[in-house]
Specification:
mainly alpha; Cyclin A, domain 1; about 55% helix; two-stranded antiparallel ribbon
Length: about 290
């Protein structure tokens, strides 16, 4: 293919099989004096209610200094300020658009996720909104539920109490919304204790090599579902980390681990006892074999 002439030529006989081909790439012809040859705007994004396709009148361009550099008179500035207000109101005239604006603001300010995951949260919320799921429910609650589901799918689980504090919703309400949203989006998945190891180890300021000790315990009890399934994964992760820390040179107290994992000390002690008994039983079975 000759990209300069827009022709498809046979390499053997030179026959022109096709011509006048359309170049699907970007046009880089520079018709300005500047060095930037880009002729496109920002890509579409779900983090904005209008997907970033609408034109915005920037208030900074209407300030006295910027307007004077563009040759705008004071009367013209007042007219453009009025047009800007009308333009902003027209973008949120419908209730669904106002709903998306509020939800996207929650996602950007309170989710605590990277931009790529914020994009996925906004996409899930937009999908639920189009199905009428958000009607009659809290915007903050549905946004928090989408944040929880995306973080869980990306193996960066967030704790429900943490999201409740960030989004200002009730724990029972958020748990109910997570169950309903997961059924609606078909995102059923059980979080395992291993998904919390890295975060808890980092919050406890333990050395990176400590993860090897934690994995050694987890790999022994993971095949035995009856030991850890049906229990709070944060609690199981906290119990394993506590068990490993007591045998290492960097021990942590029960209160420190419970504060990070958001579980009670009674729960932690009960899970530690179960894990200890399981490990002792496995040692005996290995000795007999």
């Amino acid at each position: 293919m000759d990209m300069t002439r827009g022709e498809v030529v046979c390499n053997v006989c030179g026959l022109i099989a096709d011509d006048n081909l359309i170049d699907p790439g970007a046009e880089w012809t520079n018709r300005d004096r500047g060095e930037d040859r880009a002729r496109t705007g920002a890509p579409m994004t779900n983090r904005l209610a209008d997907r970033g396709l609408n034109t915005s009148i920037d208030a900074r361009d209407l300030s006295s200094g910027s307007a004077a550099s563009h040759g705008m008179s004071p009367q013209a500035r007042r007219d453009w300020r009025r047009r800007r207000v009308i333009d902003e109101r027209s973008k949120t005239r419908r209730s669904r658009e106002r709903n998306l604006v509020k939800a996207n603001q929650f996602i950007r300010d309170r989710s605590g996720l990277p931009i790529s995951l914020q994009e996925e949260v906004a996409r899930l919320y937009r999908h639920l909104s189009s199905k009428g799921f958000v009607t009659g429910r809290s915007i903050a609650g549905v946004t928090a539920a989408c944040t929880y589901l995306v973080a869980r799918e990306e193996r960066l689980p967030r704790q429900i109490p943490e999201l409740c504090e960030s989004f200002g919703v009730d724990e029972k309400e958020l748990s109910r919304l997570i169950r309903k949203a997961s059924r609606e989006l078909n995102l059923h998945r059980v979080s395992g204790p291993d998904q919390y190891f890295d975060r808890f180890i980092n919050d406890l300021e333990l050395p990176p090599a400590f993860r090897l000790d934690v994995d050694a315990i987890w790999n022994r009890i993971a095949p035995h579902d009856e030991v850890w399934q049906g229990k709070k994964p944060m609690g199981v992760a906290a119990a394993i980390i506590y068990q490993a820390s007591q045998a290492s040179q960097t021990p942590r107290t029960q209160s420190e681990i419970c504060r990070i994992a958001n579980v009670s000390e009674v729960t932690l002690r009960g899970l530690v006892r179960i894990i200890t008994e399981t490990l002792v039983l496995l040692d005996r079975m290995e000795e007999r074999s």
